[in-house]
Automatic annotation (TrEMBL):
UniProt-listed GO biological process terms: cell wall organization; peptidoglycan catabolic process; peptidoglycan turnover
Enzyme nomenclature, EC number: 3.5.1.28
Keywords for this protein: Cell wall biogenesis/degradation, Hydrolase
SUPFAM superfamilies: N-acetylmuramoyl-L-alanine amidase-like, PGBD-like
Name recorded for this polypeptide: N-acetylmuramoyl-L-alanine amidase
């Protein structure tokens, strides 16, 4: 770990009792965003002495220049890319710092509980192939097979702007999970579709997960893949309150019917559903 040199901010931290309820908001915030998640980020920055209460103000949070400047300073102090974008790495650092504010005498909570999923480790591999959800809530998870057994090639294809395709996550055959698109953005994975027979913008409301498999129905999905997929799907289901009936395959939502066949017939839906129930 890199040593953080932030003597002034450390010396003037807020009292532990005032910050025990603070939590880091989900990643994916940037200048121009508004709402309670932005206010949550600002409150955390106030507690860590990167902003003042006067700068934040009352009401719903607005991610303006002052918030961006504070976030860039925080990122620089933590040896993170000083982009002003609140992404996964910054969220992880913020979680650790907020946990420290509770003090060494605070009761230790277990990292995991039965039936509760933590986000599994992911390799950030950004794809340019996404756009905005335009306010749509995430309520669906769509599973795909990549139609090849070559994860490196599949990843490269989804990161190629000329391909105009992507997914939020790809689970390789060794179980490694790659994140290509932030959850809050609209990845291009489902195309024209419907949900439970009702035409809808599936991409706008869903998280797309690609599983590296040729899709022929004979190549097994590996044990490592199924374990990683179960943890990832369980986490996403929990994080976004996705109904079990909205965890579907591409073939279930693509129109016209029969246009897609993924995930292939040998995918173990029973195991996945049992693992995330």
């Amino acid at each position: 770990m890199t040593t953080i040199n932030r003597t002034t901010a450390t010396a003037t931290r807020a009292p532990a009792a005032a910050s025990t309820a603070l939590t880091a908001p989900p990643a994916g915030l940037k200048e121009g965003d508004t709402g309670p998640k932005v206010k949550q980020l600002q409150d955390a920055l106030v507690a860590l002495k990167y902003m003042t209460a006067a700068q934040v103000g009352a009401g719903a949070g607005t991610f303006g220049p002052k918030t961006e400047a504070a976030l860039k300073k925080y990122q620089a102090d933590h040896k993170l890319p000083s982009t002003g974008f609140y992404g996964d790495l910054t969220q992880a650092a913020l979680k650790k710092d907020l946990a420290k504010l509770s003090g060494p005498t605070a009761p230790t909570k277990p990292e995991t509980k039965p039936g509760v999923f933590q986000k599994p480790p992911v390799v950030n591999s950004p794809s340019p192939n996404f756009d905005d959800r335009k306010g749509a809530d995430i309520d669906t998870i769509v599973l795909h097979h990549t139609a090849s057994n070559n994860g490196a090639a599949d990843l490269a294809h989804m990161r190629d702007p000329k391909a105009e395709v992507s997914a939020h996550y790809m689970v390789d055959r060794d179980g490694k999970i790659y994140q290509l698109v932030n959850d809050q953005k609209r990845a291009w994975h489902a195309g024209k579709g419907e949900l439970h027979g009702v035409p809808t913008d599936v991409n706008g409301r869903s998280i797309g997960i690609e599983i590296v498999n040729d899709g022929g129905g004979k190549t097994p999905y590996t044990e490592a893949q199924m374990k990683s997929l179960t943890q990832l799907t369980g986490y996403l289901k929990q994080q976004y309150n996705v109904p079990m009936g909205n965890i579907v395959g591409h073939k279930d939502v693509a129109v016209p019917k029969g246009r897609k066949s993924d995930p292939s017939a040998n995918f173990d839906w029973e195991r996945l559903r049992k693992g995330i129930s």
